[in-house]
Write a structure and sequence with these properties.
The N terminus and C terminus are likely disordered. The chain has a domain of about 170 residues. The chain contains 17 helices and no strands.
């Protein structure tokens, strides 16, 4: 097979030639219930997490705010916010996107849909029990694993159903090339239960002793982002970008390099956050080296996405899906290069105990992954509901509110964190005084929370309108403007 024909064969943009319209419609109909259930619950948890996050942000400048209510103290709403966003919003949106993409790319209708509906119900039950448990004071105080012990088995059983389904779906796919997006999705669905079970065994059920707990905690917290959210986000980008602009990915072979280098190097990341801590030096050194080697998959993916988009950047003017996806792809490159720099010991000592690290984490989970999920949902939901988004103007408001909100938050935390770190370097400045340097920027962070909440309310309104099919049926998709040289996205 010639290289060009190989590239064409793995390109989702060529899917209509290989998959008849009625087959696509059958696949979408089979995924409608489970995917919309995951998406709907994701939107709910996005609003819950936004409110909790806004309260947590303002408590950084007003410590006594609502402290008369024990369940709204900072030590409870902060982990409740993080876990609602991680497991409620991000994971639910990622699972829903992964289900639809896997069914489309395997080219077979969804099998065992009742199993996935049950998984969605149990997953949200686990998140609800976990968040309420944290607010009740049962947090385990292990970052990204704060859910109390009675919530964890519910989540694990729910996810087992999803993981089993993914393997079955991939096993019975139609013959043909395996798409780039399928690699990332299958890997993510297999990696997450391994990480989640390992961390819970070593930290909760049969806890290891001493400083080794910190190493396991950071291994899990870092790899949930890099081996769970990153693969799903990149799978979405590798599907949506070629699909919208109607051309193949730039290089199949760059995609191979990007996938395997991510798989090899990212699992060693995380322990550079413990530089100076009481753990073996070789563990930190290995993590630093692996973090620097992440330059390979990051730059590879960035080149592949950029070269695929080259000559088609005008599509950002009219496609909501592409605008969110490209924003997320650019954020992935920036936040990954930022993370690589933070692993360098000389820079780590400046940023380690500051708001800079918090800004970095928010930019990864929100600026990259959440924006990818918004873009995917704008593409997927009309195909499931059989209805177009009611207002391009509201979509535009959603984009600019959340984009400006996350940039303001990350910018404020980054600048404030650097000033805070420089103050900590000064021996004449006490640690308590160094916090004052970040205070004005924490005010900006609080303002950014209002922008994000407003954007999420707009998105939730749009989503509910889609489910209820509010307004007149549109003849074509909701676009920001009329495409100049591109064919508009089809409804099905």
């Amino acid at each position: 097979m010639k290289p060009q024909s190989l590239l064409s064969s793995i390109n989702p943009a060529n899917e209509p030639d290989a998959l008849a319209s009625y087959e696509r419609a059958e696949i979408d109909a089979s995924t409608r219930g489970p995917v919309l259930l995951f998406f709907g619950s994701a939107v709910f948890w996005l609003l819950v997490g936004s409110v909790l996050g806004l309260l947590a942000a303002w408590k950084m400048t007003h410590p006594g705010l609502l402290d008369s209510l024990g369940f709204l103290t900072f030590g409870r709403i902060r982990p409740a916010h993080l876990n609602a966003v991680i497991y409620g919003w991000a994971s639910s949106a990622g699972i829903g996107t992964g289900l639809w993409l896997m069914a489309r790319l395997c080219r077979v209708p969804l099998m065992h849909s009742k199993l996935l509906v049950s998984a969605a119900v149990f997953w949200n039950l686990g998140v609800l029990v976990g968040v309420l448990g944290i607010l009740a004071g049962d947090s385990r105080s292990i970052e990204w694993l704060e859910f109390p012990g009675y919530a964890t088995p519910i989540l694990f059983v729910a996810y087992a159903c999803i993981g089993i389904w993914a393997v079955i779906m991939f096993r019975y796919r139609k013959p043909g090339h395996v798409y780039v997006s399928q690699w990332y999705l299958l890997a993510a669905f297999l990696w997450f239960p391994w990480m989640y079970a390992t961390a819970n065994i070593l930290l909760v059920w049969q806890p290891i002793q001493g400083s080794a707990q910190g190493a396991v905690n950071w291994w899990f917290a870092h790899n949930v982002l890099g081996l769970w959210f990153v693969p799903i986000g990149l799978a979405s980008a590798y599907y949506m970008i070629p699909k919208v602009i109607g051309r193949p990915i730039h290089s199949y072979y760059l995609a191979i390099l990007g996938f395997w280098s991510l798989a090899v190097f990212y699992s060693w990341n995380g322990m550079h956050h413990l530089i100076g801590g009481p753990i073996p030096a070789w563990m930190i050194s290995a993590s630093v080296v692996a973090s620097v080697m992440m330059f390979i998959p990051v730059v590879t993916v960035a080149i592949n996405h950029h070269m695929t988009m080259r000559g088609h950047f005008d599509a950002l003017q009219w496609s909501p899906t592409l605008r969110f996806t490209v924003f997320g792809a650019m954020a992935y490159t920036i936040v990954s290069l930022q993370g690589i720099s933070m692993a360098i010991p000389s820079l780590n000592t400046l940023t380690h105990f500051t708001d800079y690290t918090i800004g970095h984490a928010h930019f990864g989970l929100y600026g990259f992954f959440s924006m990818m999920m918004f873009g995917a949902m704008y593409y997927i939901v009309p195909r499931l509901v059989g209805w177009e988004w009611p207002s391009a103007t509201m979509i535009r408001w959603h984009f600019w509110l959340v984009a400006s909100g996350v940039l303001l938050m990350v910018g404020a935390l980054t600048i404030g964190g650097i000033l805070q770190g420089l103050a900590q370097y000064d021996p004449t400045v006490s640690f308590r005084s160094s916090l004052d340097y970040a205070t004005p920027f924490r005010w900006l962070r609080g303002i950014s929370g209002f922008l994000l909440l407003a954007g999420h309310l707009v998105f939730a309104t749009l989503f509910v309108q889609m489910l209820l099919k509010v307004g007149r049926r549109k003849e074509g998709p909701a676009l920001f403007a009329a495409p100049a040289d591109h064919k508009p996205e089809a409804a099905v």
